Amino acid sequence: MPEEKTKYNFKTQNEAWKGGIAKSVTFIITEDCQFACKYCYLTGKNRKGKMDFDIARRTIDYLISSRKDFPQDSIIFEFIGGEPLLEIDLMDRIADYIKIRLYETSHPWFYNYRLSFSTNGILYSSRKVQKYIEKNINHLSLGISIDGTKRKHDLQRIYQDGSGTYYDVMKNIPLWLKQFPDGATKITCSSDDLKYIKESVIHMYEIGIKNVDINVVFEDVWKENDDTVLEEQLIELADEIIEKDLYEENICSFFSERIGTPMVEDKNWCGTGRMLAVDCRGDFYPCIRFTPFSLTNKKAITVGNCFTGLDKNKLRPFLVLNKSAQSPEECLECDVASGCAWCQGYNYDIAETNTIYQRAIHICKMHKARVRANNYYWNKLDKKLGLKEK
Amino acid sequence: MINYLILPVSKYAKSFCYYESPENSGKKDIIDFKVLKDAVLYAIKNKCGLNVLYGDEPLPEKYEKELEKIEHIKILPIGLRKHYKKGIYIIEEQDLKSSYTIKKNNELNLILRIGKKKLPGLSDIFNSLLWKFKRLNLVFTDIQNFTETDFDLYKIQLKKIGDTVNKLYRNLNNIELSFLTDRMFLVNMNNCDAGIKHLTVAPDGKFYLCPGFYYTGKENELGSIKEGYNIKNEYLLHLKNAPLCSNCDSWHCKRCYWLNQKLTQELNTPSSEQCKVSHLERNETRKISDKLRKSKHFRNLNEIPGINYIDPFEILNLESELPEEDKIIIISELLSKPLEKLSIRELLMYLYKVDKEAIIKLKNYLSIKYGSKK
Q: Residue A8: pLDDT band by 50, 70, 90 thresholds?
């Protein structure tokens, strides 16, 4: 791909806030959710797990007083669930405490913090949530999860009684986009809904969501010919995006200039261990995927708690994780390795031993299908924009 | 390839390493004769040697006769020396006083197992044992509890012992100390290698990576003498899949998988304490080596390079990577110098500062191309 192409008129992925080097701290404020999404990795959702303010307070005090261990110039406080808006009062109280303590301690984070959460959207327009948004708007990142067209969305994202959630989510999308015009959503694809990918991405663009982050699940769910379906869907999507000039205003993360080359960097895929998650008991985790309610087969991995601080020895395996130590030979020699993702928590949950160093490769053929469609996309875009000639 | 088996002949067999075996509360416990017989037969059939770990009691004659069928090494508490004149002897803290009465001997192979409380007097302990051994292995039983004060204390003690070792070597009295001389003579990693070079057959007739895993729980079983063993995710035992250790040159370090699992929950990742202890030893060994190389007898000793860390995690944790601007400054500095006047070492140091991965790749490439040859 020519390096110059980003000079031309098409939208590219937004850079992460502060170049992605901000510390990310996740408060798991509730383990409850109104939804029962079929692909949800939180297999142990429950109504009991709710964070007490004192746990959040201790965690914030610990973070602020341990500058040596958290030297980053900026920080993202993320609130997660379950569904975080079920605990909007707590979220508000925690956010206030963060601001007050950062101010009182003249902490550099006072000028460089963000509050962030992703919601299923159904409580978005409530008075309390709107008040929270108004109060924190300049420091807030907020995403609503919507999975595409009604038939795709309702295939996976359902209430506990099995009914679809599409209309209840959709009714709040206009307000959200009014308040967050660059709002992005994340579409998750499983085997049954692959055939709706094209229409779903286009639907997102049509309702005004310009930034669509999309991925296939990492689990062992893929059937024969799923890769063909994915490839066909993405090629149809590529045709529509390019023919209708949708690339000028919109992004679909499936198409990226950075994927489909042999392994270049020997780094881990995700930021597990570099971020920090705290649950309602005050235990620290490398990320939410290592909490008890995220794991099916294995014991949780804690890396300390808000009472005694970080257990740095437990963090070491996460912080030195690289691609080569955990990948099978076929991945290291793969011609299209770049962009092939994995989830450390899922890897751990299904590993043959209690290790985070065994990579699951169920998505192998899906990644290769994506790469083929991606090559098609960029070739077609190159031809249309005449980049090579220019 | 498994070259030898470790066989504890009692569940109270004395630990010779970092793990702890249970306290013997006076009860007699001895391996079932059939298990011992099967283990010996397995070792013979598979061309393995046998390291036999003893408890406080000598073995019955019948057992000893069975063991005589195969080449084996006895690893014994020092208290059994009166019964067994040949073997490797374990000295624990409570044995220290009696061990001082050992007569002069330049053949003995000793394992000294002590806790951090003994650190302030370590050089005195060493001096009391001097002239009574050929080789001394040092094991800290509570390495996981070491604090910065303990590391400082150890450094001081290493320096004192190092001065003695230097004098001894100059007089060509080449004693072996696991913690202060091994690194001088190594050209590559020389670690415990459980699961690669040896396995443990426990009194329950099951295979384990090492006795430590036997004492930790049944979930660590790798198979049985009857059915053979299967090490799941065996690749995690190999150096190339250990991001920290594969970038380390404390080649004498035990790289104890049991300690790794206990403290970091990963077989392939050492704790900070293990790394720091090994590096303090490495760095003091370097000082001895530097002095000795000035003498004609030791001119060919390998140079141990200077380093500015005592835990490789400090340089591998990519979060502490240099910002782009600093990298540019370093590259500019490099380019401003006449390259032909730079030593390979300086060049590599520059490269390392700006791109750690490049140097790791180079190292892996050289390792593949030239194998274990220096």
A: low
Question: Do residue B236 and residue A353 have CB atoms under 8 angstroms apart?
Answer: yes
Residue B362 belongs to domain spanning: 321-374
Instruction: Say if B199 falls within a structural domain.
Output: no
B368 and A CB contact within 8 Å: no
Q: Which one-letter amino acid corresponds to residue A145? A: S
For residue B305 the two structure tokens come to 């390079």
The per-residue DSSP string of B309-321 comes to -SSTHHHH-GGGP
Q: Is B267 on the interface with A (CB under 8 A)?
A: yes
Beta-bridged to residue B206, according to DSSP, are: B224
How does pLDDT run across A318-353, given as a tens digit for each residue?
Answer: 999 999 999 999 999 999 999 999 999 999 999 999
Nearest to B123 by CA among B133, B138, B109: B138
* Closest alpha carbon to B44 in B20, B24, B71: B71
pLDDT(B370) > 90: no
List, in sequence order, every residue forming a beta bridge with B301; answer none if it has no partner.
none
**R_g (Cα) of chain B, nearest Å:** 23
A-chain residue closest to B240, CA distance: A325
Least confident span in B206-210, B231-235, B239-243, B346-350? B346-350
Please say whether the beta carbons of A66 and A117 come within 8 A: no
Could you give the percent of chain B with pLDDT greater than 70? 93
In whole angstroms, give the CA distance from residue B195 to residue A263. 30
- Total Cβ atoms within 10 A of residue A159: 15
Paired residues of B6 in beta bridges: B51, B200
Residue B135, burial from CB neighbour count under 10 angstroms (0-12, 13-18, 19+): middle
Q: Are strands A284-285 and A23-28 parallel, antiparallel or unpaired?
A: unpaired
State how far the Cα of A100 lies from the Cα of A306, in Å rounded to an integer: 19
pLDDT of residue B324: 66
In degrees to the nearest 10, what's the CA dihedral of A324, A327, A328, A332? -50
Contact A266 B361 (CB under 8 A): yes
Q: Is residue B107 part of a domain?
A: no
B330 in any annotated domain: yes
Q: Do B233 and A301 touch (CB under 8 A)?
A: no
Task: Tell me the shortest Cα–Cα distance from B173 to chain A, in angstroms.
Answer: 39
User: How far is it, in rounded angstroms, from Cα A200 to Cα A194?
Assistant: 10
B313/A317 touch (CB, cutoff 8 Å), yes or no? no
> Which DSSP symbol is given to B194?
B
Q: Which residues is B92 bridged to in the sheet? A: B113
Q: Is the pLDDT of residue A388 over 70?
A: no
B236 inside 8 A of chain A by CB: yes
Instruction: Write the burial class of residue A288 (CB in 10 Å: 0-12 exposed, 13-18 middle, 19+ buried).
Output: buried
H helices of B147-271, where?
148-170, 182-185, 211-216, 257-264
Burial class (CB in 10 A: 0-12, 13-18, 19+), A103: exposed
Domain count, chain B: 1
Whole-angstrom CA distances from B164 to B139, B172, B176, B250 are: 20, 12, 13, 22
Chain position carrying tokens 């708007």? A137
Q: Is B336 inside a domain boundary?
A: yes
List, in order, residues 6 or more apart from B255 with CB less than 8 Å away: B189, B191, B192, B242, B245, B270, B274
- Residues in B closer than 8 angstroms to A313, CB to CB, are 263-264, 271-273
